[in-house]
Amino acid sequence: MAEDVLSQSEIDSLLSAISTGEMDAEELKAEKEEKKVRVYDFKRALRFSKDQIRSLSRIHENFARLLTTYFSAQLRTYVSINVASVDQLPYEEFIRSIPSMTILNIFSVQPLESRILLEANPNIAYAMLDRVLGGHGESVNKVENLTEIETTLMSRLFEKALENYQEAWGSVVEIDPMLEEFEVNPQFLQMVSPNETVIVVSLNTTIGETSGMLNICIPHVVLEPIIPNLSVHYWMQQQQSKERDPEEYAALTKTVEKTKVDVRAILGESDMSIEEFLHLATDDVIQLNQSADEPMKLRVDNEDKFFIQPGKMKNKVAVQVLETVRGEDEGNE
To answer: Which residues form the Flagellar motor switch protein FliN-like C-terminal domain (predicted)?
Structure first.
C-alpha cells in the first residue's frame, strides 16, 4: 500500500512543531516502530474468500430460479424466490437467529460429508401447506401442533425440491440430496459444533400475499473437499472443457438427421373472406399472389427455406431445389 504523501504546508507545520518542542521526534519514531495489532475473533473464523462466496451465490441464484418454477407449478400461485444474502458465521449464531419453533429440513448430500439444513419460516411453510390443501395460501403459525398428515405433506414438498438443488450444483459437483430428518425445534438439532463456520444462504420468498425467508445452512466440513471448485479459475476451466467432443457431435448429428419435419411446396397464397370461402364451387378460379413463371417456395415447419420448381421424377410429382431463401439478416451481411 502506498504511504500518504504530505503537502508542503503539512511538512512546514511538522518541522515547526518539532523545532518549537510541541512534538518530540523520538516519540514519533517510537510510535512508528510500535507493532499494530488487529483484533481477530477465533469464534468467527472466516474460512471462505470473497471469490468463493460469489461462486456460492451464483449456484444459489440458479437454485432460486429453479425453486421458483418448481413451487409455482406445485402450488399453482404466484411465487418469487431470490437470493437475499450469502454469509459465513458460527453455527451457534445461525441457530440463535432463526425462530424458536420453525420448519427444519435436514438432508445429506452424498458423496459429501455431514448434512445441510434448509430452514423455512413458518409463515412461508404454512402458506405452502394451505395451497397444497386447496386454500388461498393463508399463513397460520402453529408449528408446535403439526399433525402427522401436515408433517408428511410438508416434508414431501421440500423433499421433491431437493432435485432442483442437485441440478443447481451440477456444474461444480455431482451430489445426491436426500431428506433425513424433519424437525421443528432448532434447540434439539446439533449438526456441528457451535463454533463451526457455516455458510448461510438467505432466500427472499413470496407466495401469493405471504412473504418470508428460506435459509440454507451449509457447514464448512461439507464444502471443504470442493473448495478449489469454487474459484473463478475452476469455472473458466469448466467452460473450456465444454468444447464440442467430435464423437458427441457425430452422435448428435446422426440423431438430428433422423428427425422428421413438415415440408410443403407452396404454389402461392391468396386472401379471401369467410363468405367467399363458403361460396366456393367447382370450377371457381382462385388468383394466387405469384405468377406461373416465378419459382415456388419450399416451406419447412412454417418457415420458407428454398426456392423450387415443380416437375416429375419416376412418374411422381417432385420439386427441384433452385437456391436457398435468404432472410433479411443474411441479406444484409
So the answer is: 256-325
> Domain tally for the chain?
2
What's the CA gap between 69 and 48, in Å, rounded? 30
Concatenated DSSP letters of 104-118: EEEEEEETSSSEEEE
**pLDDT tens digits along 220-232:** 888 888 887 777 6
Structural domain includes residue 10: no
Do 196 and 90 touch, CB atoms closer than 8 A? yes
Q: Residues with Cβ < 8 Å from 163, sequence gap 6 or more?
A: 177
Residues 234, 131: Cα–Cα separation, whole Å: 41
Tally the residues of the chain. Answer: 333
Q: Which three cell numbers stand for residue 211?
A: 412473504
Residue 323 cell numbers, joined: 437456391
Question: Does residue 203 contact residue 60 with C-beta atoms inside 8 Å?
Answer: yes
Q: Is the pTM of this model over 0.85?
A: no
Is residue 254 in a domain? no
Nearest C-alpha neighbor of 82 from the set 195, 186, 213: 213
